[in-house]
Structures
1.
Amino acid sequence: MKSDIVMQDFVEIVEVGPRDGLQNETRKISIKNKIKLIDQLSQCGFKRIETTSFVSPKWVPQMACSEDVLKGINRNKDISYLALTPNMKGLEMAISSGADEVAIFGSASEAFSKANINCTIEESIKRFRPLVKFAQKHSLPVRGYVSCITECPFEGFIKPEKVLEVTSQLFELGCYEVSLGETLGKSSSQQISTLLEKILKDIPVTKVAGHFHDTKKFALENIKVALDFGVRTFDSSVGGLGGCPYAPGASGNVATESLLDMLIDLNYVTGLEREQVNKTALFAKTLVKN
Ligand code: HMG
Ligand code: MG
């Protein structure tokens, strides 16, 4: 009974700064500094760090040299080092670079799917199917993302039914968790509440993560709403860096240090070292400072 209470109070922060935080940065960040950032994050207490993405360098130039980054880090055996993989080519590179797990990324918006990964939603699911099978054959867990859970920069309002449909498809493919991407960072807490009420009727809350961008500074409020629904995993970026190159007008993820402060105030256990997180956030900001 006692251990149940402890489990409930634990919130996992998945650090996505080296990937989501840096991917949108136009200035070239050196491989050495990317590795330094991940190595500092490895000392913060995270269980999962999203290190990079194996995507086309023509689409996201900042994520070129992902192999060198992943191969160059000082690994902590207690941490799972993730990488984004949009297709088989990316997966093969992730495997040869030593990723511990991979993430596939779909969307609840047709227009965003086309803009971000150059295919329809249906085509993306078809593309992911062999990828997940191949990853599982190599004992790599696969995480899923669904972008545009409430709004799309091109289509506007997205129906919760569509989010449920795509999320369910990702689980059916074999994802162990799906991270719900509030890509634009503009949703109100009412929109998040409406969405979660709808989808958590069909999906176990323990398999869902929240991924909030913070353009309008609503992310922390929205995370509180998700916590009330029982969500216990959230993605964030140190320093609040980032954004998606294919989501015009959107800014970075909620800052890890702000999320951590809020969770501490709310009495949740995170396993993170606050001082080390703050120190790493300062370093992360120097990488993108004008
Ligand atoms: P495409 O142009 O249709 O692909 O792009 P293609 O198969 O025709 O290949 C085009 C070229 O890219 C070829 O090179 C391929 O070899 C190469 P060329 O022959 O012309 O020299 N290529 C690759 N190179 C390296 N790694 C690969 C790879 N694949 C092809 N994996 C593709 C389709 C999916 C590749 C492209 O659209 C792409 O890379 N998109 C990624 C976009 C992206 O990374 N967006 C940001 C991440 S998603 C996000 O931020 C949202 C999230 O945070 C959640 C949220 O906030 O909502 C996750
Ligand atoms: Mg994102």
2.
Amino acid sequence: MFKTVTGNIRYIKNAFHESKGYTFLIVLLNTLVSCMLALKVLAVGKLIDDAGAFQELGISRITMDACLIIVVYLLEYVFASVQSYLNYKFTIRLNNRMEDRYYSKLSCVKYAVLEDNDKNNLIYQAKDGIGKKFAEGFSRVLDLAGLVVRIGSMFFVILTKNVWTGLLLLVVFCCLLPLYRKIGEDNYEAYAESNKEFRRARSYRLVVSDREYANERQVFGYFPFFNEKWKARYHSAIEKELKASRQNHLKILVITAAVAALTTLLSGVMLPALLNGSITLGVYVVLVTQLYNLVHYMSWNFSYIIDDLSENQLYLNDFDAFMKLDEVSGADSGAEASGDHLEIRVENLSFRYPGCEEYVLKNFSFVFRKGKHYAIVGKNGAGKTTLVKLLLGLYDDYEGKILINGTDLRRLSREEIHNVFSTVFQDYAKYALTVKENVLLDQVDRPEKQQQAEDVLARLGVLGEIRQLRDGMNTYLGKIDQNGVDLSGGQWQKIAIARGAVPDAGVYILDEPSSSLDPISERNLYEIYNRIFKDRTTILITHRLGNTRDQDEILVLDAGSLVEHGHHTVLMEQKSVYYDMYIRQRSWYHEETL
Ligand code: ADP
């Protein structure tokens, strides 16, 4: 439990790091507000004492005492209000900063990390509520500190009023401390367990509510399945939390009763001192009320804070692990990678996915030259997409070499790789942006690019349909905007192809770009595609061999190895792997060309 408390202090450090001024002021005000409790009790004690000696002291003294109480209350109110105002402003700032930190880290995280399920979970956990987690964590530590100040200041008051009572109380507190610690630890364990269950439950909730899963949710109709899973986890979490809470309340109830009985005993012990005049009535009242206050603070408040601290500690662990995720290297070779004599030389490339035994690519060697059109073919799982991922620098833990104009790919920065390749993925993204933004993304403000985008869309045969939309190229796509329209799969695909065609890249990669088209539209698309990319270097990934006849060179991958390469006619003459695949698929080429 102490580890949790010290762990949570990082929230203060983090706040201090973001703004020394705000943190200092908020901590100061929190301390002052916490001290006010003792001051209030002292002021009330003084009023009771002076009221007892009203005849001698007169009305003015009583009035002054009353004013003092009002001043203390007012001060407490002012301090608390200023603290809450500063808290509000600082919370917004802190939240924005932490979100920025999260997203800038995420933008540098290696692709391999994003494909790892556990790490993906971690990314989700770290994102979950990041907007307020750090501000809440900071507030909770302040609450704990405030509690300690309140308890400390009350001890101090008791000690100054009656040393023996104070010392006796100190002894009682010291005896109880290990017990509180034990309760705190048990609480931490129990709440940490239930918090883990809640997290797992939330992840199931996401599957039944998030848009990302909408298609599969409909297709597989798995709502009841995940809903059941969610319910089971949720109820188990609630059960654990309730059990923890029951046990906790029971223990605290016993301790509270014991301490309250002890306090009553102490009040009795102090009676002779009151009767023989060694302590005044005011002091006596102060001491008794303080003792009961202490019981309250040391039991219930403490328990609630521990629960929050345990959850915040779990979050901090996740956040730390997230911040340690591998990042892409920021290498900048200064290489002129997209120059006129572009050449991509792949030498003895072998690769297996992180954590996997099997090699997905084995000793692949090939040279891609400028201006040529390549097709990579092979059965599903042959390694085509993996090869593309490696060319794009998404993984760097491969064996062999990928040289771009003689420079090792691993030495190129992200921007340099970005200049070399433009890619249309099979599972392209559909952005809730305008048509123009969907095609041009960050280049949207460049007028020459806007013209180019329209040209490409016109060649793809979709510009006419886009112009008929409510705001033409400025029409919002998707359902987020009230006037947003949704497009057909084929239209979306053409927009994705246009997005890949507009950048000035050295090589254009199209990974199965026609998967959502019928065979005739597919054939048309490839004709357009060949025209758009006529003089450019292209790599087409496909498993439909009918589309490969026009390519300069076809690379045939089988179980991760390059088994054949050459022009369609050459490969057909060889009557080997490509020929066999082609013959097997021939029936549907006939249908396509009908
Ligand atoms: P293709 O594009 O030829 O269909 P892929 O390159 O997608 O084949 O996949 C090649 C092999 O690598 C397959 O066996 C696939 O299951 C495996 N694979 C693909 N992605 C991953 C991944 N992220 N982690 C582990 N194995 C993967």
